[in-house]
Specification:
alpha/beta, about 30% helix, about 20% strand, 10 strands, DHBP synthase, 7 helices
Length: about 200
């Protein structure tokens, strides 16, 4: 199912429908402020397994997407220095690595000692998480072995993944450059991947 949602003013009924899909073991493709991404509810083990199967070799790299900073501390340990970095840079084109708390499912961690945290500067992504009522577990559609158009054009993403996911949200053309990844698990922020975001 390919659904057009305008990012400037997301239709509440369409967002509510997408959230219902996520609650029912669903996996969706949705726009972010960088590349398009797969998403499912963090509370849904079946959907997590489905997303892991879709991603294959890249299945260990999952991130939690929030609609605001308010709930991040429910899923990851955030001390004052980390919070200041998050507050200065989010919403934005970043993935911040933080120590996970017990609320993060083992299926999401895959034995890793950190979990990625995102709050995209994309109204569709944030509205979807807000409507869902819990974080989305997510991983990018981007594949280094695949033609760029199949990771940035929603119609081609639907052509490629439409039979594997329950919904592709068309929020306009996606970007090629991924997020900047910053490790906040140590004493100082460490940039692990230079992406679209510039750290403040």
């Amino acid at each position: 199912m390919l659904v057009k949602i305008w990012p400037d003013n997301p239709n509440p009924k369409q967002i509510a429908h997408a959230a219902e899909v996520l609650r029912a073991d669903g996996v969706v493709v949705y726009p972010t402020d960088s590349v398009y991404a797969f998403g499912c509810s963090v509370r849904n083990p079946k959907a997590i397994e489905r997303m892991r199967a879709i991603k294959g070799k890249d299945a260990s790299v999952f991130t939690l997407v929030f609609d605001s900073l308010a709930r991040v501390a429910d899923y990851a340990r955030v001390d004052n220095p980390q919070f200041r970095v998050l507050k200065a840079n989010l919403p934005g084109e970043f993935t911040f690595l933080l120590p996970p708390l017990s609320r993060v499912p083992e299926k999401a961690l895959a034995k890793r000692k950190s979990i990625g945290v995102r709050i995209p500067a994309n109204t569709i992504a944030r509205a979807l998480v807000e409507q869902l009522g819990c974080p989305m577990l997510t991983t990018s559609v981007r594949d280094d072995d695949e033609a760029v158009e199949y990771t940035t054009d929603p119609e081609l993403i639907h052509e490629r993944y439409g039979r594997l996911v329950d919904m592709v949200i068309d929020g306009g053309e996606g970007l090629v450059t991924p997020t900047t990844v910053v490790d906040l698990c140590g004493d100082e922020p460490e940039i692990l991947r230079e992406g679209i975001g510039e750290l403040k």
